[in-house]
Structure formats: C-alpha cells, structure tokens
Specification:
The complex is a heterodimer of chains A (about 300) and B (about 280). Chain A is mainly α and about 300 residues long. Chain A has 2 domains: about 5-50; about 60-299, MetI-like (MetI-like fold), CATH 1.10.3720. Chain A is built from 13 helices and 2 strands. A two-stranded antiparallel sheet of chain A has the order 1-2. In chain A, strand 1 and strand 2 form a beta hairpin. In chain A, helix 5 packs across helix 7 and helix 10 (about 210-225) packs antiparallel against helix 13. Chain B has a single domain (about 75-280), classed as MetI-like (MetI-like fold). Chain B has helices at about 10-35, 40-45, 60-65, 75-105, 110-125, 125-140, 145-150, 155-165, 170-180, 185-195, 200-215, 215-220, 230-235, 240-245, 245-280. The chains are: A mainly alpha (about 300), B mainly alpha (about 280). At the A-B interface, helix 1, helix 3, helix 4, helix 5 and helix 7 of A face helix 1, helix 4, helix 5, helix 6 and helix 13 of B.
C-alpha cells in the first residue's frame, strides 16, 4: 500500500525518535546488567583489567557476616515499617474518603513529606531524636517514660529510621489507597447496608477484599524500596562514627555494596552482592504475588 | 459522592480528632525545622523553647556566605543542583516523549518488543544498576563531570511508559490533518503532539524534579570533587560538622534546600498524584 520510498522515510523518522531513548536504556540498563554480571565473576578494583575468578565472589558472600547482618537489619526494618505504614495509610484514606471538611488540606499535609529529600529529613529527625536538645526525648522525660536513645543505642537505632520513614511514607500509601477506594463500586455498600451490615463489617468484608490488589502492590513495592534503604544510614549515625553505626545496627545491604565498591575497591564482590540482593527481592516478590493470588483464589 | 454514605460506628467528631492530631504530628518536623533555623544557637541548645523567643537570620547568612569554613559552598551546591535537575529533567522529557510518541502512534513490526524491553527494565531494582552505570560512565571518561552526572539520569522507562500511555489517546484525525497540511513528523510532534500533552509532561517534570533534586546515591558516587557536589551530597558532608556549626545552621541549610521542592509540590500536587496513581509504581 505505502510506496517503498515512503516506508523507508517512515522507518528513518521512527528511528530518529526512538534511538536516543533506546540506546540509553540499552547501555545503562541491559548492557549494564550483563556487564555487572560479568564483573561479579571477576576481581576488579575499578582500575585496570578485571580478572576472571569464577564463583569466588559468590563463595565469599556466604561467609560474609556483615552482609547477612545487614539483611537481618533490613528485615527488622521491613517487618516494623511496612505493616505500620500500610495500616496507617489505610486508616487515613478511609477517613479522607468521607465527607470531611478540609479534606484537601489534610491530604496535602499528609502527602507533603514526599517532597522532602531523605537526606534533609534524616537531619531533621536526627535533631528531633537527639538526646541533648531533641523534643522527642524531652517529651518522654515530661511524661516520665524511659528516655530511649533512638540515635546512639544499637537496639533502638533502626526504630528511629522506621519512625522517620513512616513520617515520610504514610502519605504515599494514603494516596494509593484513596485511589483504590474510589474505584470500588458503591453498589456493594448499598447492598451491604440493606442487609444491615455495620461499618466494621463493611470494611472487613467489602473494602479490604476489594483492595487486596492495592495491598499486594504496596507490599511488594514497599519491600523492594525497603531493601534498598540507604540515605538515612549516612546521616543518622553519631558524628565520630562510620555510616552504619551505632554498632552495626544501621548496616544495610546498599551500604555494604557501596563500601565494598568505593571504600575497599572490590567491585567484583560488590556486583555479586547486588545480584544476591536482587535475587532475594525477586524471591520475596514472587512469594508475595503467589500468596496474593492464592488468597484471592480461595475467597 | 455515593461512597461517602459508608458510616463508621464512631461519630464524625472522632474522625476529625484523629485527622487533626495526625496532621499536627505530620507538620511538627516542618515546624521544628523552620523555627530552629530562625533561632540563635544558644536558644536552640538551651532546649527550653517551643516557640522561638527571638528571631534571627544569622544562620541563613552564615550558610549562604559560607562563613563556617566548610569544604562545601552552599551556593555552589545549589547551583549544581539547579543545573543537574534542569538538564536532567529536560533530557528525560525530550528523549522519552519522542520515543513514547512513536511507540504509541507509529507502531511498526517489532515495536511491541521494544515496549516489552522497556517495561521489563522498569521491573528491575535500581540498586542493580548503580555499579555498572558507575563503571560505564567512568569508562566513557565522564567521571567527575556534569555530563556524567546528568546523562545517565535521562534513562527513565517509567516516564517513557507514561508518555506512551498518554499519547495513545492523541486523536488520529489530528495527526492525519497535520499530514494533509504538509506537516512533517518533527513539526507534527513539536507543534501539535507536545502542546496537547501538557498534563503528562507536567507529571513527568514534577516526578523527575522531585526524584533528582532529592537523589543522593548517584551524585555521591559519580562526583567526588566538592566543586561538583549537589545539595544532597554537600548536606551529607555536613554530618560531621553538626557539633561545630550547631543545629540552627544545619537546619537553615536543610530548610533552604527543601524550599524549592516544597513550592513545586504545592504548585503541582495534582500532577504528582496523577503520576503516582496512574502507574501506582514509584521508581
């Protein structure tokens, strides 16, 4: 139909439009991916030639205590952070989905920390939680509660990060839940009301099941985001200490990767660690998706 | 709205109570940041005041004029951040809107595979690409340069996807009319498609500006020269100086750094929310 000459022109035009994006994605995503897989089988200091050493880096990973500790730390973080932030976001969304005066203002306020950088926020929370001048310890003192040190006590440091990240992340969950709530057909609620369901029953038997895909999505993206936690652990540790302090309480996987590459010049090991981290994320994501499907299949 | 008929057991006053208290908790860190940055160090460290007893701009002056002898100049870092975000966001918009347009409106044999490859790369976590991108940029000789900082940030499969989805709804009649009037593809794209795509452009501009302004790890690894440090990197550098400089100065820097994005957030909240909920995936 189209003459060959015109088709040729169309192809060239398409190529001009597509090439910049495609070349960049090819270079920085796909070539990068395979290149770092290759690097993970080598000894590479970042300078000179990479030397093939087979699976040695992956063997090192198995006995790498700090690495497994960092995964444990991030696990502790996820188990605290995700349930709290999802439940709080859900409750806020339920409230703001109602006929409430000023709901736009409330929504704006809860979502505002999204605009802050994690670095800036970590500084603010370091001030808030600091034992000397911080208002949080002062409040605890005022209430005659034990004054916990959310910055310097290895037992509590990760809870400090959780606190800060909840403040930052609750608005995002709220917004996603609000979008989900608005997509639920109101006929379900009408029918429930005719049957005399209480508000709690409506939430339990309509809202939550209907929002299952949203909850699954937030769990998976939250998990992936949490495994890559990095910024706060550079800012929160005490001044004299290394990132990851106090103790090794704030050692997180990305920090271990960062240190191996840029402090110890072990790019091979760092790339291997990145892949191990990726595989762990992949397993969790697939498990989550599977569990999500199973549950919705049963009901 | 129909939905709002759902009633909770609790009376409405409780809902107001919860949301107001929650809002106050959310606002408190902002309040603390701004008020402490406007106080004298001695007042902050006395830890006696909820409301500032007196107001001063001395911390802001100290940080802007770099009177503290930090290795980072705040103005320089702010300049770097502005350059970084402006160029990177422009690149993200130009590169990805063009590709999104072709994938949406000019499909050809095999173009769906390109789309799959792009969506596929979106699924992989960003930590996986940090080291290879560093090594590639380094080998291209762009380590410690503005292009090395900026160009890898053009890669944004999520933005490409948003552009493509939006441009699917560009009416064919409009494109045909342009072709009949003798517009070539470049003219059609820049004079017709781009102007009617302002909603998605706004979304991408706001999402990328926020992400890049607040981005730490890429600028941290690709620039080690203090002259090239962006605000996040310069601020992390201040961590070791908190005791020397005092909290009021640090929080003045934090406030200054946050003002542009808070402003952008208030101006563009609508676009930001539509971007986050349409993909429902935050990169």
């Amino acid at each position: 139909m189209i003459p060959a000459k015109l088709r040729g022109k169309r192809t060239i035009e398409n190529a001009i439009f597509l090439l910049p994006a495609c070349l960049l994605i090819l270079l920085f995503k796909y070539i990068g991916l395979f290149y770092s897989l290759y690097i993970s089988f080598t000894k590479y200091t970042g300078l000179g030639q990479a030397k093939w050493i087979g699976l040695s880096n992956y063997k090192v990973v198995f006995d790498y205590d700090i690495w497994w500790l960092s995964l444990r730390n991030v696990g502790e973080y996820v188990l605290l952070f995700l349930p709290i932030v999802i439940v709080l976001g859900f409750i806020l969304a339920l409230i703001l989905n109602k006929d409430i005066k000023g709901k736009n203002l409330f929504r704006t306020i809860h979502f505002a920390p999204m605009a802050m950088s994690l670095v800036a926020m970590a500084f603010i929370f370091k001030m808030l939680m600091g034992k000397a001048f911080g208002p949080i310890p002062q409040l605890l003192r005022l209430l005659h509660l034990p004054v916990i040190d959310l910055l310097n006590d290895p037992k509590w440091a990760m809870k400090g990060v959780v606190l800060m990240m909840i403040w930052q992340g609750v608005g995002f969950r709220m917004i996603i839940f609000l979008a989900g709530l608005q997509s639920i057909n109101s006929e379900f609620y009408d029918a429930a009301r005719i049957d005399g369901a209480t508000a709690m029953q409506e939430i339990r038997y309509i809202t939550i099941p209907m929002l299952r895909p949203t909850i699954l999505l937030l769990t998976i993206t939250g998990l992936i985001g949490a495994m890559q936690l990095f910024d706060p652990v550079l800012v929160l540790p005490p001044e004299a200490a290394q990132p990851g302090a106090p103790g090794n309480a704030l050692q997180v996987p990305v920090l271990v990767i960062y240190n191996n590459a840029f402090a110890y010049a072990k790019f091979g090991l760092a790339c291997a660690l990145s892949f191990v981290l990726f595989l762990i994320m992949l397993v969790f994501t697939m498990l989550q998706a599977k569990v999500g499907r199973l549950e919705s299949g049963i009901e | 709205m129909e939905l709002n008929k759902t009633k909770l057991l609790t009376p409405k006053i409780w809902l107001y109570a919860i949301i107001v208290i929650s809002s106050l908790v959310m606002l408190f860190p902002f309040y603390w940041m701004v008020t402490r940055s406007l106080m004298f160090r001695i007042d902050v460290e006395s830890a006696k005041y909820f409301f500032p007893p007196r107001i001063t701009l001395v911390n802001y002056i100290a940080i802007i004029l770099n009177q503290l002898g930090s290795q980072f100049s705040f103005l320089r870092a702010a300049f770097n951040s502005i350059i970084y975000v402006c160029f990177a966001v422009s690149g993200v918009v130009i590169v990805n809107s063009m590709a999104g347009f072709v994938l949406a409106k000019r499909p050809f044999r095999g173009s769906q595979y390109i789309l799959y490859a792009i969506i596929g790369s979106m699924m992989l976590p960003s930590s996986l690409f940090l080291l290879p991108n560093f090594i590639i940029t380094y080998k291209l000789g762009l380590y410690n340069t503005y292009p090395g900082l900026i160009i890898p940030c053009f890669v944004s499969p999520f933005s490409l996807f948003l552009f493509r989805q939006y441009m699917l709804s560009t009416p064919d009649s409009l494109l045909d009319a342009a072709a009949i009037d003798g517009c070539n593809i470049y003219r059609t794209f820049f004079a017709i498609v781009i102007p009617i795509s302002t909603p998605v452009i706004s979304t991408v501009v706001i999402l990328s500006s926020l992400n890049l302004w607040n981005y730490l790890i890429w600028p941290l690894i690709i620039t080690t020269d203090p002259k090239l440090a962006v605000l996040t990197v310069a601020l992390v550098g201040l961590r070791v100086d908190i005791d020397t400089f005092g909290w009021s100065v640090i929080l003045a820097a934090v406030t200054l750094m946050s003002i542009p994005m808070i402003t952008l957030y208030f101006l563009g909240q609508k676009w930001l929310i539509s971007g986050l909920t349409s993909g429902a995936v935050k990169e």
